[in-house]
Amino acid sequence: MAAPADLAGVQVLAFDIFGTVVDWHGSIVRELQELYPEVDGDAFARAWRAGYQPAMARVRSGELGWTRIDELHRLILDQILPPFGLAHLDEAARRHLNRVWHRLDPWPDSVAGLTRLKARYTLCTLSNGNLGLLTNMAKRAGLPWDCVLSAEVFRAYKPDPATYLGVANVFDLAPAQVMLVAAHHDDLAGARACGLRTAYIERPLEFGAGHPKEVAPRPGNDLHCASLLALADRLGC
Amino acid sequence: MAAPADLAGVQVLAFDIFGTVVDWHGSIVRELQELYPEVDGDAFARAWRAGYQPAMARVRSGELGWTRIDELHRLILDQILPPFGLAHLDEAARRHLNRVWHRLDPWPDSVAGLTRLKARYTLCTLSNGNLGLLTNMAKRAGLPWDCVLSAEVFRAYKPDPATYLGVANVFDLAPAQVMLVAAHHDDLAGARACGLRTAYIERPLEFGAGHPKEVAPRPGNDLHCASLLALADRLGC
């Protein structure tokens, strides 16, 4: 099966990462369970992630200068350790725990789906995660990117247009020749406003089985898929 | 065999590309022979490459604003077409020929050597070539990078220290934990001055069989190897 005719011009697929390609919640819960079984891993993972948008907002507003996600994750971590009873962690333990974001596991369909898509498309990341984080994650998890792109390259966080248009510019393509693949509607809306094509991926368990996410189709996206394997099916890969 | 003890801390290998990993001269000669057999491909390839350093010098001096290699290659191409009897090429033909730099073939040892090295090290490019060029090249040639880095990311051309130190910074490593692999002594000297480890790769045919390059060992580099397979041997991969 070929790609839908109106998507025939797409050459590059750019992927959101946290939640779309890798399971941040489950990975952090599993690591907490192993290292600090007395802590409520589910609540800890959600608290850490909940600090993410506010931390990036401090960069966007100029309150913080350009700061990589590794550093933002660490700022949030230092704030949530005391209420979770982990204020005693020393510097080495904090550094190790903060790098859990480099060790996130992919969703079960991610590697197989990306491998099929790679045969026809150029695959890149487009994440607010930093280049080192994304590279370490890909190497550990076997994610077969052709190119690792990040907010770090464009010095702007999604949904800043500089990120979406930056991908098209890197590959010397028109925006409509790039498709953003993401599990988050705000990210997809940002890409769409820049002229990119968009594919929504359902990840109902992004926040854990206890907090199912609403994933019903919404208008506006070119594709709505249950997984990256389903995306490969829809694109004829 | 393990890596030499003094190189045990190296975690990232950063590769120069043009001449070190891919054979720009031979690839351009082959493409010219096919497209424009009346042209002296050897002289054409060397003339094109000879314009490379002067073009980057115009960016470094500020005469040109930040300009990607694709654009610099095109500026040079437009200058050399008339003396080689190709002034009649139209825009589409010029665009296609300019993209030959995206279609360069690897040296025969490159893919096998990189594949062995990748099992132990994180492999990235560190080229003055732009991200799109390097990604397209890697996809076509099967170069298994973990991460594509470029002067484009750091907005500075090698041998600017921002490029060598930029790689260490991306991976949150000390400079001595990064090794530059290159076939050019000026590039290696720039890296060494920043505290990186260095490996020289002999590429005696970089400028073609008619113009053999002097490749005798010089002091200063940590390793001197005949190929990327020899580098994998030396690093115990």
UniProtKB/TrEMBL annotation, chains A, B:
It is an enzyme of class 3 (hydrolase). It catalyses: an (S)-2-haloacid + H2O = a (2R)-2-hydroxycarboxylate + a halide anion + H(+). Pfam families: Hydrolase (PF00702). One of its GO terms (molecular function) is (S)-2-haloacid dehalogenase activity. It comes from the Bacteria. Keywords: Hydrolase. Its EC number is 3.8.1.2. Belongs to the HAD-like hydrolase superfamily. S-2-haloalkanoic acid dehalogenase family. Catalyzes the hydrolytic dehalogenation of small (S)-2-haloalkanoic acids to yield the corresponding (R)-2-hydroxyalkanoic acids. PANTHER family: HALOACID DEHALOGENASE, TYPE II (AFU_ORTHOLOGUE AFUA_2G07750)-RELATED (PTHR43316:SF3), HYDROLASE, HALOACID DELAHOGENASE-RELATED (PTHR43316). This is (S)-2-haloacid dehalogenase. It comes from Ramlibacter pinisoli.
